[in-house]
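User: Please predict structures.

Assistant: First:
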Amino acid sequence: MTTHTRLDTTPATSDWRTSAACQGIDIETLYSDKPSDQHTVQRICGSCPVRVTCLRDALGYETSTYQVFGVAGGLLDWQRKALIVHAQLGERPNVQQARVLASPVFAGFMREWLDWPADRVAGELRTFGVLAWPVTVRLALWWCGGRGSVLAPLPEGDRRVQWMQVRDECRPVVEMLRGHGLSNRDIVAYLGVAFHNFERAVRSWRSADASVQDTQTQQQGLGVAA
């Protein structure tokens, strides 16, 4: 089982919209934030012959005309934002390879991994001789209807909720992303988590830091080495 890994450099054409499968779809549906409308558009995108070109244009890597709202290239707004963050980290998906991974040829495999994080799926693919960057796999998972979260599924018996998992597993990557000057909204998109869960995890980190600081201050006041 193989698929190509060459970086895709084919430029987008200017008239691809005339071949788009969403021709005739109401504009309000295309830009709707209702899950039902978004799922409808994503199903249409799934069979669109110009999905790859649409996504390139929506991301605006070269033109800085990033599409903020609606579904484009088969992705929701937060998923496209996550790819922009990846690009800022020097990671761009090979969209042609992602299309192959999301095709019926690989569907039987990808369906088993829809809840897995992309780096883990990339590792599984390597066992089949398929070399793909995690960001490429993440795009393929989204096109297959997967979560594409950075977080791995919780093991059986683990009763943590999402904010607790973010608290326990994501601080190093959050600090790395902040080091790149990224906003909380950007970080939430990259992680693939709910914003309120991210905020709660951040509050937990701050509380823990304050507790450590208080302990150190008390020790210093008592003349105890920290």
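Second:
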Amino acid sequence: MREWTILGAGALGCTFAALLREKGNAVSLLLNERHRGHFHPALEFIALNERRRLVETHTRFADQAAGIDCLLVLTKAYQVLPALTSLRGLSANTPVILLHNGMGVAEQVASALPHNPLLAGVTSHGALKEGPWQVRHTGKGETWLGPVNDKGKAFAHLTKALAGALGHAEWNEDIVSLQHRKLAINAVINPLTACHHIHNGQLHEPRFADVLDQLSEEVHSVLAQLGETETLTQFRRRLHSVIELTATNYSSMHQDLAHGRPTEIDYITGYVLRHAGRLPVPVCRQLYNEVKKQGG
């Protein structure tokens, strides 16, 4: 791999850029057109050990897509398709890796880019944007990639370079199941923390016990209907573990609402609602409507 191009210069995208650069990889950030002609300072990266360093990356814009070797997509879910369809001259041989939250986008990308190798992934790394071109790595996690289409199956080797930079990256042919597992957690934590304006750890307060039980049961029932085999007890154990591990964090949906940005509710809770069928999911629906009402 000659160069990794990252689409989505947010907290996680910049964190991935910094970690890849630290291991000697060439990295470019694919920026929005509004950044053209502006001065771009070096990215300030704050590592887990509080060490600060400046990270130099190349800059690309949509009309320079022909030179992209490998594209890592770390934008918000609703930004993925517009961003990818704006890339002029992207080679049909360029692998595209979708690493956004939520589900339902990969199918749209497969239609828009029918000839490209497509991969999807999940990551549990945490990151926070502390200022313009300043990001903090808040938590180390696992990263998994897998194929969206047949062409994507030829790119399992990309996990090796990612593992060297991120600490962990593995291949899984059944990436949809891993996406479901992450979405299930997000469908509980994100809308609840966003609607109640709290950090993740506050979900363990007694006042949230009943709604956690109801919501986790609704989400689990939909995922079970989609073929997932995790039991409700196992899911709740995993959910409470994530809440504990991220107790001081604010969810991405909370941050989006707090800063007046669109949320990914349509690709998280919306995905659950679209696949519920005849299953009753009143709490999911109520939270979906509330996030939308608050501007999400």
